[in-house]
Write a structure and sequence with these properties.
The chain has 203 residues and is of the alpha+beta class. 55% of the residues lie in helices and 16% in strands. The chain is globular. 12% of the residues are buried.
Length: 203
């Protein structure tokens, strides 16, 4: 029956359009609420960092550092939600500008320094071949990705070091993050990009 088939088709089209509208509203909601949360959170992170510096070596130093670390983790989580909302709503654009690669490494080091655990070194390797090298990059996007990778590395590294560096590989500039942490079992490597999967339940 052609009439019945067309009616089903119209129903499906309406359902798809409604689903698209709901998804768009959801992305906008999370983007807006994340922005509203981030504003006061910036102040909390700033003052907790100041308290941690003032308490360095004092009796409350350990607790001040715990507050600072968890505040920074919460800020990274909110940044991740905002980034995801921008991607889903189609508002995230890659903006490439000529950027000094060494500047990216230095900026990321400055942002993440102090996030490592006691007994862990945070190192930046400035390769001689990279000095003065400029390339068309989205500096903000690259730094966000590196900071997220470093945050995970710090979380899973109890001793040794965490290191970032960049090098030229063929026509590409490749950024690396390495650590001496617990790592990921080979049979779980295929799950690292799955949603809501925690590979180590004890971390």
């Amino acid at each position: 029956d052609i009439t019945e088939s067309r009616a089903r088709e119209r129903t499906i089209i309406r359902a798809l359009r409604k689903a698209e509208q709901v998804e768009s509203l959801r992305a906008r909601f999370f983007g807006n609420i994340s922005h509203e949360i981030r504003t006061p959170l910036n102040a909390i992170v700033g003052f907790s960092s100041l308290i941690a510096q003032m308490q360095a070596g004092g009796p409350m130093a350990r607790y001040a550092q715990i507050i600072k670390t968890n505040n920074e983790q919460l800020l990274n989580l909110v940044d991740g939600i905002m980034e995801l909302s921008q991607l889903q709503s189609g508002n995230r654009r890659i903006v490439k500008q000529m950027t000094d690669v060494d500047d990216i490494l230095s900026d990321v080091h400055d942002r993440m320094a102090g996030s490592e655990r006691d007994g862990v070194q945070f190192l930046v390797s400035h390769e001689a071949s990279m000095r003065g090298l400029r390339a068309p990059l989205d500096k903000l996007a690259v730094e966000q990705i590196l900071c997220k990778l470093l945050s995970n590395a710090f979380h899973c590294t109890d001793a040794g070091c965490v290191m970032i560096w960049a090098q030229v590989e063929g026509p590409n500039i490749v950024f690396h993050v390495s650590d001496t942490g617990c790592g990921i079992q080979r049979d779980k490597l295929g799950c690292i990009f799955d949603v809501f999967v925690k590979l180590n339940p004890f971390r």
